[in-house]
Amino acid sequence: QVQLVESGGGLVQAGGSLRLSCAASGRTFSIYRMGWFRQAPGKEREFVARISWSGGSILYADSVKGRFTISRDNAKNTVFLQMNSLKPEDTAVYYCAARGPTSYEYDFWGQGTQVTVSS
User: Fold this and answer.
1) 39-69 pLDDT per residue, tens
2) Exposed, middle or buried, 65 (CB in 10 Å: 0-12/13-18/19+)?
3) 38, 94 in Cβ contact below 8 A?
């Protein structure tokens, strides 16, 4: 099992920045890839960004490309999401997720952290 705990959410004005963190514990050696997802009220959960545990492969959703940066610190078993130039439409609960090398879906999820961007 892998446990994920997100932190860093909050309230920020449009144009501001936030940095989310996701600390992994447990069987972290089994992690192949980690991702960030978000879910706004009344909407389905959507992909935001993902990074391979080795750090060699990164992918962003078009809606955040150029504004968000995903990174990881393997020594601390932590993945970060730096969010700049935030927009009101970025308001959502942000979730961290992890998957193993043989999984096609993300197996482990954090509890989520609220990000609210005011206009």
Assistant:
1) 999 999 999 999 998 877 999 999 999 999 9
2) exposed
3) yes
